[in-house]
Design a protein that fits this description.
Length: 566
């Protein structure tokens, strides 16, 4: 009967559709590495629930925890950064600096300016646009080196601390992952999907090494989640205050929820679209917004005074580099050391993510070129924010135009940033542009991070294959939930504590990376070779690698075991 056929068709169609969707979800779930995915997702869902339920009551406890870490474990952070910095200074200045990532005949894909712009862009997010205005105010009110608060010397030192925290030592922490991953990919011909695959000290099929590799992957995901989640937790309240400044919408939790909803949609669309068509377009846009804003403030602000302050800051940074590096900054300088340890934890949490990106764009460059380039483009680029935006905040405070320190102490850093922006010409346009820039930065950072974390929690992907959208979207949701928990608790100390805790375990990963780099460069037979003899050595090495790979594959087929990593 016709009615029966018409009524049966839709039912059958819907049933097939449900079966297909269920199979699709199951198929995507099979692409996930549950040994890393399940514990990390579970951990952050539980942490998010604890933050959301605990709320403001957790502020005091987290602040006490941060004080305890600064007092009792600060030496670990200062120690690993000193070790890391000294190691890469030696590596760049020694004959090992001549080692090229790739073959002797490989040329860099990007010229120096293009490469440097992309390196600079990796560390530019909304956080530096915000903190570069506030950190110098904390420093002038609570100076180190026994300097009197608000004195002439305090003003000349104020931006120096932020430039140190975002300067050479911080950027050399990225070098550990960059060099290890780049050498593993281009010289040892590995497909590096996870940071553990670049740690040659963990090569082999021994049980404890397998456990350690999984543990490293777990720590990397925790670090990225902690660092990026803290970024959003820091930036949403500030963004809400800025939006309130030019719209008049009440700055309350409902506004923050709306911002989270908008960001979730933006993150979801860009992550769902993938690297091409989503994340890449945001990445191309965000660098220009940052540079444009800096130039605007420099040209319309007190340009001459900013230059004078920066000359003083750079001079003091050079003469006081060693005390800053060791935390010996005078009695009572708890604020300075706590801020540095917070940043050291933050940079550690970003280290795997940023190192992987820089390694992928650095084929054909020598180790020396990469290290020097990261210092010139990365460190100096970040320091320019403190020179211009930090200098402008100090100018407003010193000249008496606005008492920003009082606003910081009574209303918080979000109110300080909104007040600084309000003093610039074209106030409303500046506030709108700043808010849009922060949205672009947030979308770029979290979308890219969700993509990287989903790669780390996937089973082996083929060259050019993206992680499943199912995996990516799960992480977008977890990012938003965790960040919302941080906002509910509130307070800058909360952000500092979570960032520091996220970075602390990655000290262990950094040491493993340094050991692996030593192992790889010492075994490199091309260090003393000429270009021609190096090409011959590389050819012989490639032949040996191919022979070993075939031998291991034949052995694995007969024994049913996985091939040994080499």
């Amino acid at each position: 009967m016709a009615p029966g056929r018409i009524s049966n068709f839709p039912l059958g169609h819907v049933g097939c559709g449900r079966v297909f969707r269920c199979r699709f979800i199951i198929l995507k779930a099979k692409q996930i590495d549950r040994t890393v995915f399940v514990p990390t997702v579970s951990l952050f869902v539980l942490m998010s629930a604890a933050l959301l339920l605990g709320g403001h009551s957790l502020q005091h406890w987290l602040a006490s925890l941060m004080t305890g870490i600064t007092t009792n474990m600060g030496w670990l952070f200062f120690g690993v950064y000193l070790l890391n910095f000294a190691f890469f200074v030696y590596l760049a200045s020694s004959h090992f600096g001549n080692i090229r990532l790739g073959k002797a005949t490989d040329k860099p894909k990007y010229n120096n300016f293009q490469w440097g712009s992309m390196v600079f862009a990796t560390a530019i997010d909304a956080s530096i646009l915000m903190l570069s205005m506030v950190d110098p105010l904390r420093a002038v009110a609570h100076p180190a080196f026994n300097v009197k608060p608000f004195s002439h010397a305090a003003y000349f030192d104020a931006s120096m601390f932020g430039q140190f925290d975002w300067g050479p030592m911080a950027w050399m922490m990225f070098a550990s992952a960059t060099i290890a991953i780049g050498y593993a990919m281009y010289n040892k011909h590995r497909q590096v999907q996870r940071l553990s695959e670049a740690i040659t000290l963990l090569d082999g099929q021994q049980g404890y090494k397998k456990v350690l590799r999984t543990f490293v992957d777990f720590l990397v995901v925790v670090g990225i989640m902690g660092g990026i989640g803290s970024s959003v937790g820091l930036e949403i309240p500030i963004l809400a205050t800025v939006v309130h400044s030019f719209t008049g919408v009440p700055d309350n939790f409902m506004l923050k929820l709306v911002l989270f909803a908008i960001l979730f949609v933006l993150f979801a669309v860009t992550v769902f679209a993938g690297l091409e068509g989503g994340i890449d377009r945001l990445s191309a846009a965000h660098i220009w917004t940052a540079v444009g804003f800096l130039v605007f403030v420099l040209l319309l602000g007190p340009t001459k005074l900013l230059g004078q302050l920066e000359l003083g800051n750079l001079g003091h940074l050079i003469t006081r580099f060693i005390p800053l590096s060791t935390g010996l900054v005078g009695k009572g300088a708890v604020t300075t050391n706590a801020n540095t340890i917070f940043y050291w934890g933050w940079w550690l949490s970003y280290m795997p993510f940023t190192g992987l990106f820089i390694a992928r764009i650095s084929k054909g460059r020598t180790i020396r070129q990469i290290i020097v380039g990261m210092l010139l483009f990365g460190a100096l680029g970040c320091m320019s924010f403190y020179a211009i935006l930090g200098g402008y905040s100090l100018y407003l405070q010193h000249s008496g135009i606005v008492n920003l320190v009082q606003i910081l102490n009574t209303q918080g850093q979000a109110a300080v940033i909104a007040r600084v922006l309000s003093t610039l010409p074209f106030k409303v346009a500046v506030l709108i542009f700043y808010a849009l820039s922060c949205f672009i930065f947030l979308a770029t950072t979290i979308s890219s991070s969700a993509f990287i974390v989903s790669s780390l929690t996937s089973l082996k992907l083929k060259a050019g294959q993206d992680p499943s959208r199912f995996n990516r979207m799960i992480w977008v949701g977890v990012f938003i939930l965790f960040s919302m928990g941080i906002v509910v608790v509130g307070g800058f100390k909360t952000v500092q504590t979570i960032c520091t805790l996220a970075g602390l375990p990655l000290i262990f990963v950094c040491v493993l990376l340094l050991g692996s780099i030593v192992q790889m460069v010492r075994a490199d037979q091309t260090v003393y070779a000429t270009k021609r003899t190096r090409a011959g050595l590389e050819h012989d090495a490639e032949v040996q690698v191919q022979q070993l790979r075939k031998k291991q594959q034949r052995k694995a087929q007969h024994s049913g075991l996985a091939p040994v990593r080499y």
